[in-house]
């Protein structure tokens, strides 16, 4: 029976050599052409700035910033950063006018992420004004501090406290600014959220909450650290045949399983790899690495997703798993697999059989995330899933 969620992976696996023809000479023009296509579709009106970094124009600004940071695109750096500034300036004006203070504090869907990216772009341009969005970001901790500041779940990644802390990590990584904003966050709130989370996924569930707790564990008490590690064990034990259900206690139907960053194995690999050196002493438990490698095999089999090219539930999001595993293991097999997924994105089979994307320019569902992946494939030793700083 045909799988409705993914294309069949007909590629032969790694046999000791990377693919020819995917170096900078061939890939840079492809990336530049993709960016040109994106910039032709991105909206330029203030009324079209909703969606935050996830699927709004602000995600395009982040993509341009990311490309400008890669030395292979140095000749395009100035124009990409200036374009990014134009887009992020418009996005900042949009979230400044947002009447819902809780949405202003959201990472991927609201103001916190936009302010963080604005600070990064301004700093890259050498503008002293980078302090202004940084100050707006810092002040949002007052919104996040109450334990139940959101009805939908105060500590999830997209709009909750985990997202705010994730943005602070990005600022620490990109700007070298200490994540002093975390001092305004009561980490026991995150610990309490563990007890209430019912979803497993990185987008809205336990996976991303645990990643943030692991990232800030120096701020936790001994008892809280124990709770975090017990919760990591609990999450890992929810595995079913190298994958994880979207909801705790659910049974995965093998013919209809979710193998996405937002729900499924790809997002879990990031949670249990958070902020540990390579080579590993692996989190007290070497079997975690073994479990991640086995999950990577599932992504190789079922990661050519039909939902589009993006990083949330598309082919590029699957391919980022291989770049992560390469950084963790040093095994070139994973670069090869990422190359194969990149190759598939440009096949007629994918173009004809993948779902159309409403906002083709977007970071998480569209081509901007794909561009980030293609750039990171050229620099695998520095590769990292957009806006998630695992190696800080």
From TrEMBL:
GO terms for biological process: carbohydrate metabolic process; peptide modification. PANTHER family: LANC-LIKE PROTEIN, LANC-LIKE PROTEIN 3. Zn(2+) binds at residues 262, 312-313. GO terms for molecular function: metal ion binding. The keyword Isomerase does not apply. GO terms for cellular component: plasma membrane. This is LanC-like protein 3. The keyword Zinc applies. Belongs to the LanC-like protein family. Keywords: Metal-binding, Zinc. InterPro entries: 6hp_glycosidase-like_sf, LANC-like, LanC-like_prot_euk. CDD domains: euk_LANCL.
């Amino acid at each position: 029976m045909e799988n409705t969620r993914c294309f069949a992976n007909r590629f032969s696996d790694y046999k000791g050599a990377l693919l020819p023809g995917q170096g900078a000479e061939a890939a840079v023009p492809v990336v530049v052409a993709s960016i040109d296509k994106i910039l032709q579709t991105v909206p330029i009106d203030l009324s079209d700035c909703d969606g935050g970094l996830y699927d709004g124009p602000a995600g395009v600004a982040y993509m341009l910033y990311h490309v400008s940071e890669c030395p292979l695109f140095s000749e395009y750096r100035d124009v990409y950063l200036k374009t990014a500034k134009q887009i992020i300036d418009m996005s900042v004006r949009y979230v400044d006018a947002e009447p819902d203070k809780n949405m202003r504090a959201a990472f991927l869907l609201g103001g916190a992420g936009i302010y963080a990216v604005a600070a990064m772009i301004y700093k890259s341009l050498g503008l002293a004004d980078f302090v202004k969005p940084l100050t707006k970001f810092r002040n949002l901790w007052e919104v996040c501090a109450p334990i139940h500041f959101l009805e939908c779940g105060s500590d999830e990644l997209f709009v909750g406290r985990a997202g705010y802390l994730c943005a602070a990590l990005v600022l620490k990584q990109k700007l070298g600014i200490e994540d002093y904003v975390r001092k305004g966050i009561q980490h026991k709130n995150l610990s309490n959220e563990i007890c209430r989370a019912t979803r497993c996924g990185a987008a809205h569930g336990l996976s991303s909450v645990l990643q943030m707790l692991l990232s800030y564990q120096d701020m936790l008490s001994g008892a809280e650290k124990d709770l975090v590690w017990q919760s990591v064990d609990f999450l890992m034990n929810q595995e079913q045949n190298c994958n994880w259900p979207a909801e705790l206690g659910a049974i995965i139907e093998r013919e209809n399983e979710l193998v996405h960053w937002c729900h499924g194995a790809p997002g879990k690999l990031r949670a249990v790899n958070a902020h540990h050196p390579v080579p590993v002493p692996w989190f007290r438990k070497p079997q975690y690495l073994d479990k991640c490698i086995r999950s990577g095999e599932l992504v190789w089999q079922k990661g050519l997703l039909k939902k589009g090219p993006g990083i949330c539930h598309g082919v590029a999001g699957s391919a980022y798993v291989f770049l992560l595993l390469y950084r963790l293991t040093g095994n070139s097999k994973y670069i090869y697999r990422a190359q194969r997924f990149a190759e598939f994105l440009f096949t007629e089979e994918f173009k004809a059989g993948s779902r159309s994307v409403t906002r083709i320019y977007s970071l998480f569902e569209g081509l901007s995330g794909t561009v980030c992946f293609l750039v990171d494939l050229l620099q695998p030793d520095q590769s990292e899933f957009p806006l998630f700083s695992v190696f800080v």
